[in-house]
Amino acid sequence: MIAPIVGKLRKRFIVDLSCSLGLGTAAAYAYWYGSHLKAVERQENFYLKLEKEKLASSQ
């Protein structure tokens, strides 16, 4: 007789859930620090330059 497989689905679910949460968090950090903050910095620099030009032309 073959022994029943008990608890395999639950263990696999916990592994899948923890891996997906870990990889999702890592991907989010990679996007945030690798792409998003650089884009925001470029945008802020552009508007700062625009404001300086505006002030220089008004004087």
UniProtKB/TrEMBL annotation:
It is found in: Mitochondrion inner membrane. Pathway: Energy metabolism; oxidative phosphorylation. InterPro entries: Cyt_c_oxidase_su7a_fun. GO terms for molecular function: cytochrome-c oxidase activity; oxidoreductase activity. Component of the cytochrome c oxidase, the last enzyme in the mitochondrial electron transport chain which drives oxidative phosphorylation. Belongs to the fungal cytochrome c oxidase subunit 7a family. This is Cytochrome c oxidase subunit 9, mitochondrial.
